[in-house]
Design a protein that fits this description.
Largest sheet: 10 strands, mixed
Shape: globular
Number of strands: 29
Number of helices: 11
Distance between the termini: 53 Å
Structural class: alpha+beta
Helix content: 10-25%
Radius of gyration: 25 Å
């Protein structure tokens, strides 16, 4: 039976089998048999010894055509290198169908402490820069030892190794470049985690309730410790309601959720009292609410000065990635900052999490359509070209690819630049003026106030479902929020010329609150004209006429306005600076559109509720700590954009 095989790996939560699975999928104009890999590759499973004696389970796919030598392209994953066992094959392998069909040695490995690999698992294992013995291991040393074994033991390899991965496997791809093995020539970290205080589980210190169900995936120890298993040993919490907004609102303080992470017997896995917490990652979240040594040690961004110059890097991300946008942007920027002579490029397209690895066809994020075959273009003309040049070509820096391959999500087309941000970018400031005006000129200072009702927080979308990490909200229509009294709206007149935002955004707020704590959320919005035609991909109740497309958004937990490691309360009613860095964009607000800014203090249940009364640890806050407060934004607040002039 023939079927379309869809290209590489998008991280999915598969609740039916209680595991987060990395699925390799591919697309091509030519149909391929479901048995293509089995027909054209030989599969071997080996346990590779690390320097401390721990063995890591590794699956190797070798082309049946042994008339030539091939590069090794590997992926290290915590999500299982299934299927296990003789005669069981993946339906597609490698970063994409082109690299699979032209022939490469493809390797998958279960990282230390996961699935069929021995050892203990550590979530975001800390890098050890100065190792003094074989007991000093980290993901860098495990990758090094794996590559050393592969190039010396796998037949028909040409001595060149590449690595790729999306999301958590993207993090391991970045890690591989630090003190890399000499044979590692190319690495493509994609949607790579950089730091759990800014990626996935937190955004600028605010806890993401959207990741609540994923906690057990990383925080449940294997039942037999270091003993390998081919069966999922964790279960994901099942919420008793499909109405996620109401469920978390009724649940109240975060500590009331502790019972979801208490484990008892096999037949009764969640038992105990409110104070019992057995999931070790949930414990870490609770006991480390600030950016302390635990989170700092596990961050990888600060170690990218140790990336080897012999490794070419191509960082890939999606402009609308709700999970890992900080990671790939900061990975690219810090490799660039500390390693001037390295080959280091970035590719950012109109994708949500991992969508560049999906099928060809319509490229849609939420309701917003960006074009056709955009992912396939990346796979064939960028990703394949990168790996082939550094693994099969001469490996010099003349790969034919630009420094930055970026998609303008407003004009809906690709652009290439010799640097990112592009040369010629200028800073342009817009002030949050009265009467809902976003002005290039500072007006007379005054305060604009709103009531933040803790019982009626602002939803992150009008379409909230019980899902793991919502994605469509990243381009959602924000009209529902603009019409609330607890969301401040500021917008320009209709633009007479295109305005291209290219780079980071800095919200420089001047605020006050009647309480001692508050979150601050800033959203950048492209307001479409009334005559904008509607596309068929939109939800039935929406029209593109006057569509308020969210382009970028970010939260800052106000206690961290001066330091992520040393939080502090607000002084009630005192005017205070709160500066929020929003991640980069590449988006043209076109002539005839309007640029809009929304400011609010709740974003539920994407992030948890701030009590709006300062407590040392929000994970341990009591019901009585949660208070409705009045917040004020002053009109000398501004948003600083990186603008590319024509």
């Amino acid at each position: 039976m023939k079927s379309k095989i869809w290209l590489l790996a998008l991280v999915l939560i598969v609740f039916a089998c209680n595991e987060k699975v990395e699925v390799a999928i591919a697309s091509d104009d030519v149909e391929v048999q479901d048995t293509y890999v089995a027909d054209n590759y030989t599969k071997k499973e080996v346990d590779i010894p690390m320097r401390d004696g721990v063995k890591l389970h590794t699956t190797i796919y070798i082309p049946n055509d042994t008339s030539k030598k091939y590069p090794i392209i590997m992926q290290r994953t915590p999500y299982s290198s299934k299927p296990y066992g003789e005669g069981k094959f993946k339906k597609s392998i490698g970063p994409n169908i082109h690299l699979m069909k032209e022939g490469n040695i493809i390797v998958y490995q279960d990282v230390r402490g996961r699935w069929l690999s021995e050892g203990s698992y550590v979530n975001m294992r800390a890098y050890i820069p100065n190792k003094t013995s074989d007991k000093d291991i980290d993901e860098s040393s495990d990758t090094y030892d794996t590559i050393e074994w592969l190039v010396n033991n796998v037949e028909h390899n040409n001595g060149n190794v590449g690595i790729w991965g999306i999301s958590y496997p993207g993090y391991y791809s970045t890690y591989a470049t630090v003190n890399a093995h000499p044979a590692l020539k190319a690495a493509s970290p994609q949607a790579c985690i950089g730091d759990f205080f800014f990626d996935d589980f937190h955004h600028n210190g605010a806890y993401l309730l959207s990741y609540f169900r994923a906690t057990s995936l990383f925080g449940t120890e294997r039942p037999n410790g270091d003993k390998p298993t081919d069966t999922a040993w964790y279960t994901l919490p099942e919420l008793p309601s499909e109405d996620q907004y109401q469920f978390f609102l009724d649940a109240g303080p975060l500590k009331n959720l502790n019972s979801f992470f208490q484990y008892g017997t096999k037949d009764n896995p969640r038992v105990g009292t409110e104070d019992m917490v057995d999931d070790f990652f949930w414990k870490e979240l609770i006991e480390h609410p600030n950016y302390d040594e635990l989170w700092q040690s596990r961050g990888l961004i600060q170690h990218l000065k140790n990336v080897k110059s012999s490794v070419a890097t191509m960082v890939v991300g999606g402009w609308f990635d709700a999970e890992d946008l900080y990671g790939p942007l900061e990975t690219y920027k810090n490799i660039e900052k500390y390693n001037k002579d390295n080959y280091n490029t970035m590719v950012f397209g109109p994708w949500d999490h991992g969508a560049w690895a999906r099928t060809k066809g319509k490229n849609i994020v939420g309701n917003y359509y960006f074009g056709d075959s955009i992912s396939e273009f990346f796979q064939e003309n960028i990703e394949t070209k990168f790996f082939n040049h550094f693994l099969k070509g001469n490996g010099d820096h003349k790969s034919g690819l630009p420094e930055a391959y970026v998609f303008d999500t407003g004009k809906k087309d690709w652009k290439t630049y010799d640097s990112w941000p592009p040369e010629g970018v200028m800073k342009q400031e817009f002030f949050l003026s009265g009467n809902q005006v976003l002005s290039e000129n500072k007006k007379a200072e005054k305060g604009i106030s709103f009531v933040s009702n803790i019982k009626k927080p602002v939803p992150y979308s009008e379409d909230i479902k019980s899902v793991f990490t919502p994605r469509k909200y990243m381009t959602d229509d924000q009209r529902f929020a603009a019409r609330r009294s607890d969301v401040l709206v500021f917008e320009t007149d209709v633009l007479k010329e295109d305005l291209t935002l290219a780079g980071d955004i800095l919200a420089k707020l001047k605020v006050a609150t009647t309480g001692t704590a508050a979150d601050w959320i800033v959203k950048v919005i492209d307001v479409h004209p009334a005559d904008e035609p509607t596309v068929e991909e939109m939800q039935g109740h929406l029209k593109m006429s006057n569509y308020h497309m969210m382009v970028r958004s970010e939260v800052l937990r106000g206690r961290f306005r001066n330091s992520f490691s040393e939080p502090e309360p607000f002084v009630p009613n005192k005017k205070t600076d709160v500066t929020i860095k929003l991640q980069d964009v590449f988006h043209t607000i076109k002539k005839g559109h309007k640029l809009q800014i929304q400011v609010q203090s709740t974003w539920f249940p994407l992030i948890d509720l701030n009590p709006q009364t300062y407590v040392d640890n929000i994970f341990k806050a009591d019901e009585s700590d949660f208070k409705t407060q009045t917040h004020t934004v002053f009109t000398d607040s501004s948003i600083e954009f990186s603008v590319l002039k024509p």
